[in-house]
Amino acid sequence: MTVHTNMKSDIEIAQAAVIKPIKEIAAKIGLQEEDIEQYGKTKAKLAFEALERLQTNPDGKVILVTSINPTPAGEGKSTVTVGLADALNKLGKNTMAAMREPSLGPTMGIKGGAAGGGYAQVIPMEEINLHFTGDIHAITTANNALAALIDNHIHQGNELQIDQRRIVWKRAVDLNDRALRQVVIGLGGAAQGVPREDGFDITVASEIMAVLCLADSLEDLKSRLSRMIIGYNRDKQPVTCGDLGAAGALTLLLKDALKPNLVQTIGHTPTLIHGGPFANIAHGCNSVMATKTAMKLADYVVTEAGFGADLGAEKFFNIKSRAAGIHPSAVVIVATIRALKMHGGQPKELLKEENEEALHTGLANLKKHMETVQAFGVPFVVAINRFATDTGAEIKQLEKWCQEEGVLFSLTEVWEKGGAGGLDLAEKVIRIIDETPADFKPLYELDQPLTEKITAIVRTVYGGRGVEFSSKAEKQLKEFTERGWGGLPVCMAKTQYSLSDDPAKGGRPAGFTIHIRELIPKIGAGFIVVLTGDVMTMPGLPKKPAACSMDVDKHGRAIGLF
C-alpha cells in the first residue's frame, strides 16, 4: 500500500537500496562498456556511437502511463511507472522505463521530485532529484548564453535591427522565483548595455528544453535551435537564433546533454531518464532519443507524461508520437481513491474517512480521461495506486464501477512491495496489448487550421463547450497562418488541476469555455504554445517551501529531500 505508518520514508528506502554498478545494468540490455560514459559508478550517458548502432534493432512496445487530474492527495504516476516496469521484468519480459528528469523548482517547492516512491523508485534518488548529470544546468546555460548574445548584439550596433520592445526570448533559472517574472536589465549607463524589460522562465519551460527533447540527432538539434525565434525586427519580421549566428555555440553547450542518461530502479530495471519539460506549460514528455533508444533495447518500454491525460497524454499523442513516429501499444491511467474523493468534493483533511458518495462523484473525472485515451485509439488499463486508508467498501465500489464500464482494472501496491505489487497490473497490460491491438491516430491533422486543432482538443479532451480567443490571440492566429506556421501542432498551456482553465473546478465540469489569451510560436520545438487562463511560465514558491526542510548530514547524505 502507498501509506504505512511503519514504513520508511522514500529517501530512507532509496538510501538503503542496493545499487548495482551501472556497467552491470548496461550489460543487462546488451550494452558494452564502451557504449556508456560513466558519471561515477551509478549513472551513465549512452554514447552517440551506441545510439547509431542500435537503429537497426526492432522496436519494442510502448506503454504510456498517465493519470487523472492531479490533486494535493497525490496520484503516484511515476511510482506506478517504475513499479510496472519492475513487474514486467519479474514476469520475464525484457523491459525498460523511460522517464523525465526532475526540475529543482518543484523539488524545492511543493510538488516534490519525480523519482517514484517507496520501493518503486529510480536510484540514486538524491542525485536524480538534484543535479543529476547536469543536463538541466546545460539547458539553463544555453538559454542564457543566447540571451546574452541578443543583448550584446543590440549593444554592439544591432546589425539585425532587433526591436528591443519585441524580444520574446527570456532568461531562465531552474528554480521557482516569482520575483524574476518581470525585470529590467541594462541599467547603470551606456557601458552596461541597453536598458529594456525582460523576464525569466523556469528552465523546464525554455524552448531549448522542448528542442532537446524532440531532437533525434545532433544535426536535428542544431537545426531546431537555429529556427528558434528570439524576437522581431523593426519591420516586425521574426529574428531567429540562426540569424544571430548562435546555433553552433548552443549545440556545443548541449552536445553531452543530448545523450540519454542510464540509471536503475530499486528492482534493477534499466531506466533512461532524460529531459523534463513541464506538461502544463510545455509538452511534458521525456526525450524522443531516450524513448526510441529504449524501444531498440527492450521489448516493452514503460514511459510517462506529465500530469493528467488532458495535458501530458494529449501532447504525447499529438506532438511527441507524431514527431517521433511512435505508435503506443497501451495506456495505464493512474488514480487513487483519495484523489477521486477530492474530485468528488471531499476536503483533503477528511480523506481518511470513508465517503462512497464523494468517490462516486469523483469517478466522473476518471471517466473523462478514459474517453480521452479511447479517442486516440489506444487500449488502456486503470491502475489504482492503493493507500492504507482505502476502505473495503470503497475498493468494492470502484471495482464494481470498472466492471460496469467494461474496463480492465488493477489495484497496485508498488509503493510498499515494488514490482511484486504490480504483477496483476503487468499481466493485464500484457493481456490488453495481445488481445486489443492499438489503432492509434492523433486527434487532428496538421493541415487543419490552428483554430480547429485547438477546438478539437477543448471539446474532445477537456469536454468543453468551445473556445474564446482574446483580440490579441485572434490577430496572432491570422499572423501565424500568414507566416506559414499554421501547419504545426498546438501545445496547450493550461492548469493541471482541472479539465477547464479554472483550477478550482475539479471533477468533470461541463458547459465551460476555454479562454485563449495568447499564442507563442516555438518554431524550433515545432509547435505553437497556446496560453489559457492564468498559467505562468515561472512558478512561485509556497509559504513553506520543501527546501526549508532539507539538509545534509556530516557524511554528505541528504536529509529531508522526501
In words, what does this structure look like?
The structure is a single chain. Residues 1-5 have low confidence and may be disordered. The protein folds into three domains: 14-134 and 257-435, Rossmann fold (3-Layer(aba) Sandwich); 135-250, Domain 2, N(10)-formyltetrahydrofolate synthetase, CATH 3.30.1510; 450-532, Formyltetrahydrofolate synthetase, domain 3 (Roll). By secondary structure, the chain is α/β, with parallel strands linked by helices. The chain is globular and about 70 Å long. The protein is built from 19 helices and 25 strands. The strands form six sheets. Strands 1, 2, 3, 4, 5, 6, 14, 15, 16, 17, 18 and 19 form a twelve-stranded mixed sheet that branches. It has a four-stranded mixed sheet with strand order 20-22-23-21.
The CATH superfamily of the largest domain is known as: P-loop containing nucleotide triphosphate hydrolases
Approximate shape: globular
Extended strand count: 25
Rg calculated over all Cα atoms: 23 Å
SS element count, helices: 19
CATH architecture of the largest domain: 3-Layer(aba) Sandwich
Q: Which residues form runs of ≥5 with pLDDT under 50?
A: 1-5
Separation of the first and last Cα atoms: 18 Å
Give me the CATH fold name of the largest domain.
Answer: Rossmann fold
Find the structural class using helix and strand composition.
Answer: alpha/beta
What's the number of structural domains? Answer: 3
